[in-house]
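> forwarded from #structure-qc
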């Protein structure tokens, strides 16, 4: 049995490709066929020393190449899916109402709050004060509660404070229930500008809140006493708050001009 195997073995000889001493069908060094080899891919006979099959081009010694799969159907399916998505998105945006249409359908108007970050301290204070006063007149207590602290913070940041600013701050403090601070602002106005009508208006407002009739009459009396001279002075804040000044004067006249002013 051993002799039969020995008889069929190929004698060692140089590899026609790399020159290494080898035996067998393929070179053990580079894999080149020595003689009588066939292509593993197509079965064609390989020439001695060939590194590639002359029939199919397969590299000698490499594993047979798996047949290529046709990917054309996948590309077609992807293109169809993309087209369907584009159609669906177009229909969605065409059928979805715009924000303006939604607002119109709901019959609501959304007003963006003003950006007060770029305003001067005086502008911020005036804007917030007006917001609070408008809310107070309409009975919107939630807005009054929300914006009054902000307005008072803006007042504290003012570089200069005049009678008009003190008048605004005093009314804001009335809304927060800080009556003593409001009365103190009235006294400051009258100390700095004797006879200023805003001082009496604040005193009267505080007196009404406390239901102090004597204090209210004193405020009325002082207001009427200085009214003509102050109006002639032409202070711009009187024009800005003309309605408040006129309403207080009307109430003072109806009350008899301070019946208990001498008490």
């Amino acid at each position: 049995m051993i002799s039969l195997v020995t008889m069929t073995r190929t004698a060692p000889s140089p590899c026609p490709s790399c020159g290494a001493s080898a035996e067998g069908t393929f070179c053990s060094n580079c894999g080149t066929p020595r003689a009588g080899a066939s292509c593993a891919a197509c079965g064609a006979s390989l020439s001695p020393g060939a590194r590639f099959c002359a029939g199919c081009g397969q590299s000698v010694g490499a594993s047979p190449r798996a047949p290529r799969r046709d990917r054309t159907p996948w590309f077609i399916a992807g293109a169809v899916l993309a087209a369907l998505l584009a159609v669906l998105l177009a229909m969605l945006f065409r059928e979805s109402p715009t924000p303006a249409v939604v607002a119109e359908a709901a019959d609501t108007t959304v007003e963006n709050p003003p950006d007060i970050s770029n305003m001067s301290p005086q502008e911020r204070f005036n804007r917030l004060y007006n917001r609070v006063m408008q809310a107070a007149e309409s009975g919107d207590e939630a807005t009054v509660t929300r914006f009054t602290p902000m307005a008072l913070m803006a007042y504290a940041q003012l570089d200069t404070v005049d009678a008009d600013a003190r008048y605004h701050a005093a009314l804001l403090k009335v809304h927060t229930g800080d009556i003593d601070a409001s009365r103190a602002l009235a006294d400051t106005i009258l100390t700095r500008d004797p006879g200023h009508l805003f001082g009496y208006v604040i005193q009267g407002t505080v007196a009404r809140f406390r239901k102090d009739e004597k204090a209210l009459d004193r405020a009325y009396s002082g207001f009427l006493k200085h009214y003509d001279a102050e109006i002639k002075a032409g202070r711009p804040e009187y024009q800005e708050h003309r309605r408040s000044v006129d309403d207080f004067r009307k109430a003072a006249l109806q009350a008899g001009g301070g019946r208990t002013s001498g008490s």
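QC bot note: The chain has three domains: 1-66, 72-106, 161-254. DSSP finds eleven helices and two strands in the chain.
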